[in-house]
User: Which sequence fits this backbone?
């Protein structure tokens, strides 16, 4: 049995609604996209790391750092679409989508998601971390996932799942926060892109529900490390504080 080849693609769009120019925002003096690129380069067994972008400024920064940018259309509706467009430059069997706003993502997390597809028959691999506090669980921006006994995703939601009916039970350990990283088998990525947004996806605004609602199998790697991502400018300070703390 041949060993599958693996390509990591980092989508990096310049015109973010909440944070224009986000991939080039400086974190401790270095553009964020280079933090992500460096983390991805530390992942073992990867054939190549591509940065899928729509902007010459991002491409220039990546090129000067020795990376490989792939220019993609600016009107693509999602990061997944951008990853798919860039994946045409790769012959890899597995395509990994690492978000460009995860500057401190541990290489071990990426490796754990890849391992799901290497060791199991899932279509898509992703990750989750246990919630630390009840306050975080109630946050609709923190997406929850519930899994089956063998690690398959049963559902993702912005609501609190599972619902704790009996308040006398302590079930906080059961709550998992989804980490937005995906590994796709090449055929699974092609199928996912061909599907229209599903009803549940539109309701929750979570594109992974498109895969579930169409019968695709998602495996979830539970990892321990949770690092801050960057959604808005104020998050830069949180990431730098995390670095200063030795995180």
Assistant:
């Amino acid at each position: 049995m041949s060993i599958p080849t693996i390509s990591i693609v980092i989508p990096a769009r310049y015109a973010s609604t909440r944070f224009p120019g986000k991939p080039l925002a400086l974190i401790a003096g270095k553009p964020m996209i280079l933090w992500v690129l460096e983390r991805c380069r530390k992942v073992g067994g990867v054939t190549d790391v591509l940065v899928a972008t729509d902007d010459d400024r991002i491409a220039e920064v990546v090129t000067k750092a020795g990376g490989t940018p792939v220019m993609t259309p600016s009107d693509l509706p999602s990061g997944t679409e951008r990853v798919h467009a860039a994946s045409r430059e790769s012959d890899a069997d597995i395509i990994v989508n690492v978000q460009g706003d995860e500057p401190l993502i541990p290489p071990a997390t990426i490796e754990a998601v890849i391992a799901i597809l290497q060791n199991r028959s899932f279509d898509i691999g992703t990750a989750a971390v246990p919630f630390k506090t009840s306050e975080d669980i109630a946050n609709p921006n923190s997406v929850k996932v519930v899994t089956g006994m063998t690690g398959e995703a049963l559902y993702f939601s912005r609501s609190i799942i599972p619902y704790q009916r009996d308040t006398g039970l302590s079930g906080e350990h059961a709550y998992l926060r989804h980490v937005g990283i995906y590994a796709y088998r090449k055929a699974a990525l092609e199928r996912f892109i061909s599907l229209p947004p599903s009803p549940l996806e539109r309701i929750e605004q979570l594109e992974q529900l498109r895969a579930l609602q169409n019968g695709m199998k998602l495996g979830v790697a539970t990892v321990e490390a949770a690092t801050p991502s960057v959604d808005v400018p104020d998050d830069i300070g949180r990431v730098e504080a995390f670095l200063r703390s030795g995180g």
User: Anything to note?
Assistant: Residues 6-235 form a domain with the Spore Coat Polysaccharide Biosynthesis Protein SpsA; Chain A fold (CATH 3.90.550.10).
